[in-house]
């Protein structure tokens, strides 16, 4: 039975700000498992303005020792990511899937970034609201945030159901750990961490 990972996070940054930093998520000091990011293509639809990007992401796969030893796994793996950004919404939809180790495990991930009203209000009393970016409401209006919704389906086609279930469980645990690290890393990027280095 495939394992499902689900997580919703609200980033306290406007969708425009969040989408602007989406392709700058790596490198960051938290996601040390990501060692390369190669952009394979990036296009803009001239009629709709929809941006499509395709990237190849190299990761230290970090499989549990028993799995790595049993299957003589390489230390690195690759993930294909396709991102569609609609600046008019503003919204993004991301799909990713593992290219490496597919004979043992398959991970299909679907992520959305969409506008979210969090109920916090601009007071206009502090300097943080003095230089609002375009699209951010003024004092007294609800602050726009970004809702990050992540869903991943992890399944193993291994012939032994006992081994398949253990591989799925270990992969789900690793995925959850990396998702937590990913959240910290992206928050760092959104806060301008790369510019401060």
TrEMBL record:
It comes from the Eukaryota. GO terms for cellular component: mitochondrial intermembrane space. Signal peptide: none annotated. Residues 2-197 form the PRELI/MSF1 domain. PROSITE patterns: PRELI_MSF1. This is PRELI-like family-domain-containing protein. The lineage of its organism: Eukaryota, Fungi, Dikarya, Basidiomycota, Agaricomycotina.
């Amino acid at each position: 039975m495939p394992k499902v990972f689900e997580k919703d996070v609200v980033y306290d940054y406007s969708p425009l700000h969040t989408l602007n930093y989406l392709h700058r998520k790596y490198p960051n000091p938290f996601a040390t498992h990501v060692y390369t990011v190669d952009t394979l293509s990036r296009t803009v639809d001239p009629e709709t303005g929809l941006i499509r990007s395709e990237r190849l992401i190299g990761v230290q796969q970090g499989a549990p020792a028993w799995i790595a030893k049993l299957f003589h796994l390489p230390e690195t793996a690759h993930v294909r990511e396709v991102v569609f950004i609609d600046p008019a919404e503003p919204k993004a939809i991301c799909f990713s899937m593992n290219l490496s180790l597919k004979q043992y495990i398959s991970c299909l991930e679907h992520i959305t970034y969409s506008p979210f009203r969090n109920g916090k209000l601009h007071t206009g009393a502090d300097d943080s609201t003095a230089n609002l970016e375009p699209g951010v409401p003024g004092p007294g209006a609800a602050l726009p945030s970004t809702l990050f919704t992540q869903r991943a389906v992890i399944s193993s086609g291994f012939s032994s159901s006992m081994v398949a279930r253990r591989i799925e469980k270990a992969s789900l645990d690793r995925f959850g750990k990396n998702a937590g690290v990913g959240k910290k890393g992206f928050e760092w990027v959104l806060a301008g961490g790369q510019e401060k280095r």
